[in-house]
Structure formats: structure tokens, C-alpha cells
Amino acid sequence: MKLKANSVGDLPELASKMVEWAGGEKIWVLNGEMGAGKTTLSKAIGEVLGVIDTVQSPTFSIVNEYLTLSGDSIYHFDFYRLEHPEEALAIGVEEYFDSGNLCLIEWPQKIGNLLPERHLAIRIEDLGNEQREFTLTHNGR
Predict the structure, then answer these.
(1) Which element (helix H / strand E) includes 37?
(2) Residue 19 in 3-state DSSP?
(3) What does the angle CA 118 – CA 86 – CA 116 come to, to the nearest 5 degrees?
(4) CA distances from 6 to 9, 127, 129, 134, 141 (A)
(5) What's the pLDDT tens digit per position in 74-130?
(6) Of 17, 44, 110, 113, which cross-links 79 as Cys (Cβ 3.0–4.6 Å)?
(7) Would you give the DSSP letter of residue 51?
(8) Which residues are registered as beta bridge partners of 98?
(9) Backbone angles phi, psi at 14, to 5 degrees
(10) pLDDT of residue 56
(11) 3 state SS for 60-98
């Protein structure tokens, strides 16, 4: 599935479509260059899912947990600062992935084969002038 945003203002509607299209998939991988909008998309997804906390980049903490109005947890990872996949193991990444809660993952290439085979991949392409194209693919089904 492909979606296009002409501005940040389009993201809540697109995030809603993504949630619907994802079905029950709980592992979402956000791919894109630095500044493509991975964290901004995560904020929009959180908004759609009723996150009561402020969604922000977990660059320094590696993982942030957000609670929704319904009491569910969402885990938001930013693996950019990792030097080795073993660092993800040290924070218990596999337990997060197996929790059944939504996991939003930025910079998944940093964790190598720790990424579950089954996941929703979202490729974000910066088209300039605030425009973004999102390509969604179900992997491992």
C-alpha cells in the first residue's frame, strides 16, 4: 500500500489508514533517512491510538513506553545509537517484541537478525516541501 502526505497535517488521517491496514500486526518497522519523519509518524500513530503521553524520540533512552486511554502499552524504539545488536538484547528487546503490544521501531537495521521476521514495514520517502510517501508492506506472513 502507498500513501502520500502533502504536509504534516495529513498524518493523522494517514496514520489511521495505516492502523486499519496493519490489522493485528504488532511489530512496525519505520525505515527512512535521517529527518524523513519516522518520529513524526510515530507521534501521529500514537495520537490515533489514544496515547496519553507525549510521544518523543527515544534516541537516548532507546525505548519509550506510552500508555493509551484504553490502558494498552505501546513501545517506541530508536536503535540509531546502538553499536552492536547485543545492546538491544541487554534491554530485553525480545521480551518487548513478544509482549503482544505494538512496537514502533526506528533504525531496525541496527539490530540485525533480532528483528522478528513477521512485521509491518513502512518505508518513508522525503519528496521535499513537507511531502512524504509511505510504502507499507507486510513481511513474513
Answers:
(1) none
(2) helix
(3) 5
(4) 8, 9, 8, 11, 31
(5) 999 999 999 999 999 999 999 999 999 999 999 999 998 999 999 999 999 999 999
(6) 110
(7) B
(8) none
(9) -65, -40
(10) 82
(11) CCCEEEEEECCCCEEEEEECCCCCCCHHHHHCCHHHHHC
